[in-house]
Amino acid sequence: MDMVSYLVTAAVAYLLGSIPTGFVVAKAKGLDIRNVGSGNIGATNVLRMLGKPAGIFVLVIDGLKGYVACAWASDLILHYVAAKNTDQEYLRIVAGVFVVLGHNYTCWLHFKGGKGVATSAGVLAALVPWTFLIGLSLWIAVFALTRYVSLASIAAAFSLPLATWLSGYSVKLILITAAMGALAIYKHKGNIERLLHGTESRFGAKPREVAR
């Protein structure tokens, strides 16, 4: 096994994922996004606090982090660093896992980051595009019916291994998407509690202040 290329891939992907886009965008506008709304640095909270342009920008950049790490950065490492027998799919998997971990546990914010939905979507689009399309379709359907971003994200995350299996991908990709889905659901544990207690905010509703 070409350990150096996997270590380089993991490090590059983590650092790319660790860029706290939402935090940086909010800081540029004089706001610490961690202290308002839900306290999350992701696109949904940025959109609620700073408006659609900022929220959409964060969503796109966070998604691109996942896609670039998985589709481009890993391929560059394969070309310039890896040994000839290095498996491209494994490099992409390593990149996908570590870019999500970088986003969720960024070293720049004391290892507290986002929930990884947009970044995971970028990884899925590069690694398992049919799974991405199924998950996206389910997200849109659940969101349209409920107006809960969190519930749509949880439903899409829960569907990932089944969608990957139905799309005919390998067992290792089924396991990877299952792990990604499980991590996304875990990161939504606060949202799950609020959904169960009926206190979760619907999209478009006035945001609640984060508990301090």
Model description:
With 212 residues, this protein is mostly helical. The chain has one domain (3-197). It is 71% helix and 0% strand. It has 10 helices and no strands. It has helices at residues 3-17, 21-28, 43-50, 52-80, 88-104, 117-127, 129-146, 149-166, 171-187, 189-197. Helix 2 crosses helix 4 (52-80) and helix 4 packs across helix 6. The longest helix has 29 residues, at 52-80. The chain is globular. The N and C termini lie far apart (47 Å). The mean pLDDT is 93.
The tally of strands reads 0
Helical residue percent? over 70%
SSE order, as H and E? HHHHHHHHHH
- Rg computed from alpha carbons, rounded to a whole number of angstroms: 17 Å
Mean pLDDT: 93
- Helices and strands: which structural class? mainly alpha
Q: How many strands, what sense, and barrel or not for the largest sheet?
A: none
Task: Give the helices and strands, then pairings.
Layout: H1 3-17, H2 21-28, H3 43-50, H4 52-80, H5 88-104, H6 117-127, H7 129-146, H8 149-166, H9 171-187, H10 189-197
Helix pairs in contact: 1-4, 1-5, 2-4, 3-4, 4-5, 4-6, 5-6, 5-9, 6-7, 7-8, 8-9
